């Protein structure tokens, strides 16, 4: 068996930790080339001691000096680098076979694209990168021959239910539509009045999944499903109207593909990200992920409902941005990142999130995308506009 060398971008986060858990079960098949982290330096140091990467990448020089000293004390050869260029370097290094793109938010765009352009097997958790730069990102995949494998559980499920030649076009392979499942988050049953006063800690307590703060808030507002709708359109070359969202509170059916002959294929499993991670690492093989077998009798029942766009307007905002195209999705994503950070910092209420995003989308006109700098400019403009809205409010 050949050894695959892996760079894990965002190793200290929820997806990063799950990735290293799977890899530790298969030390004969995977070797860590680089680990990166922006905070939680203690976690990164422990990970380095265990996996002995050639490189570790941190945010700034101060962190780099401290971590390097700590690793030298332990007689580790790991070289500690810092800054955005170093992230791109370890994503594109010639020795790397697989890159786990698990940085959260727009910060992950450049390093993820660097991995794509270098033709790696890219395990895509960082959905924001694809949402921001969809057409350019997918063109880069085609140009370099990179293998793009979705880690988002829904998209990984869809990938598993698609025929191998789905890139020929959904109509050609007989797919009618994609059914994207959503748990509905912790506030699924809340009224608009109740939503107005929820706290960040309530928003981060997801009923089925344990995740980073940003995606937890996105799940609670349903923006996560909005970002995933856009992600599905790019990954599977689908129109927004070919992707339907279904609320499924148990999070056991991870998504479904509906074919023209009436067949509906679904992928099921316990809600544990190690399943899609192991799938994408080993594809087309299968390896043990550490996830327990699904006990259908314990699950008992599977429920499905329509989403409520009145209480959760973010999904509709994302659908509109997907249909508008151009820089609209980058604007949506940037406004959402500002909104989530402001909500987590106690600067605005949960129900302000869609209001801020809608304001930003209606103030900045979407333009046809020229290049990466154009996308980053749209992202910056949207952040400035969203901050202005917040300043006026307070
Ligand atoms: P997290 O907050 O737990 O971890 C984020 C990682 O990114 C950390 O290692 C952090 O140090 C790093 N990071 C943060 N800001 C950075 C910056 N400016 N520069 C460089 N590194 C930075 O997040 P997570 O839950 O692991 O999610 C990671 C990505 O995976 C997100 O895009 C999320 O939407 C996606 N995702 C997560 C899950 C999940 O179950 N957690 C499921 C599907 C998709
Ligand atoms: Mg998901």
Report on the structure:
The protein is of the alpha/beta class. The protein folds into 3 domains: 147 residues, Rossmann fold (3-Layer(aba) Sandwich), CATH 3.40.50.720; 135 residues, no CATH class; 70 residues, Orthogonal Bundle (Rna Polymerase Sigma Factor, Chain: A), CATH 1.10.1740. It has a 7-stranded parallel beta sheet, with helices on both faces. Strands 9-8-10-11 form a 4-stranded mixed beta sheet, covered by helices on one side. Helix 1 links the parallel strand 1 and strand 2. The termini are far apart.
Characterize this entry briefly:
By secondary structure, the chain is α/β, with parallel strands linked by helices.
Relevant terms:
394 residues; alpha/beta; Rossmann fold; 7-stranded parallel beta sheet; 4-stranded mixed beta sheet; binds nicotinamide-adenine-dinucleotide
